[in-house]
Amino acid sequence: EGIRWIADNLHFDIDGEVQVFETGIRMVGGLLSGWFGTREKKLLALAKDLADRLSPAFTKSPTGMPYRFVNLETGAVRDNQSFPAEIGTYIPEWGMLGKEVCDKRYFDMAKRAVTALFDRRSKIDLVADTIDIETGAWISRRASVGPPTDSYFEYLWDGWQLFGDPDFKHMYDVHAAAIAKYQAHEVNGHLWFPQVDFETGAVLDHHQSELAAFYAGLLGQGGDMERGNAYLDSWGYVQARYGVLPEGYDYLKAAPDRVTNELRPEFADSCLNLFLLDPNDRYRELARVHFEKMKETSRAPYGFTIIDDITSSPMKQGDSCPGYWWSEQMKYYWLLFSNTDRFDYKNNYLSTEGNVFVGL
Ligand code: DMJ
Questions:
Q1: Contacts of range 129-133, beta carbons closer than 8 Å, 24 or more positions apart
Q2: pTM of the prediction?
Q3: 138 alpha carbon to ligand 1 midpoint, in Å?
């Protein structure tokens, strides 16, 4: 039914602009994953059509780092101030698409963008979080493993994992070593990653975005299970304390600094990634708590909702359910607990948006 609906209704011939990054990970990735799962040619054709409509964001940029927005019909681009995640989160979608349609230009386009960013790293091998994609000049000094940088690191590893390209492994390793050296900070037995100045390593703040919880799984994938487990435990501690994770946590004050919960997937994502490396029930147990607490606190009459304040009792609910909730943690829970034979637990690939490209 879904495929029929897409075939009959979905087209991208629209005079309107979209955000390149979100459209890439959600829609190009979703269509590609659908193609891998069904081999319905229409899905691949739509993924290619959409990627082609997004491509002016890359080709019109003097540095190769994409503009943030593009008009799907006219190819007009805008916003030259961008962020590592929005510059470097393309290689799995673009590379896999290029393989399927036998056109290496997609891979090259995504790799050029990410390499242009990496080449502008500081002498201590960190990137800041805002850059002018036309001039290549940095606009901020703040280095973070959280947003808006997060999935840039994730896709460096993925470029190596999926395509065996040693340049990606090198870029991942360089950043991972610098993050371990300048950002890893143990406080009261818990590992955290503060924001630091990207040229000096001086700590800027102790805020920890919930989105940074993905880094536990990535550390494990990159071979550092020790820090991966330690960072997962830091978030596990916050979960045990508050029931559900706040959007932000100040680890020096040991208190939430953003009290909402946006139904985020990162903690479950790390539980799954570490479980795939080491099928230990401890990851299932942490994810079970995540799932049970979500059911307890986010259930609304017609589905599940974000929470406006996790510190109020009872927790004050909001009124929306983000798309990633369907694409990510619903899938992560299911893969963690089902032992399904529809998924290859040994050889697989899930994108940053939980889209499965390998292992279906
Ligand atoms: C998702 O779209 C992806 O996981 C992305 O990489 C980060 N933000 C959201 C979920 O929080």
A1: 129/83, 129/84, 130/81, 130/82, 130/83, 131/65, 131/81, 131/82, 131/83, 131/84, 131/87, 132/80, 132/81, 133/61, 133/63, 133/65, 133/66, 133/67, 133/80, 133/81, 133/82, 133/87
A2: 0.97
A3: 24
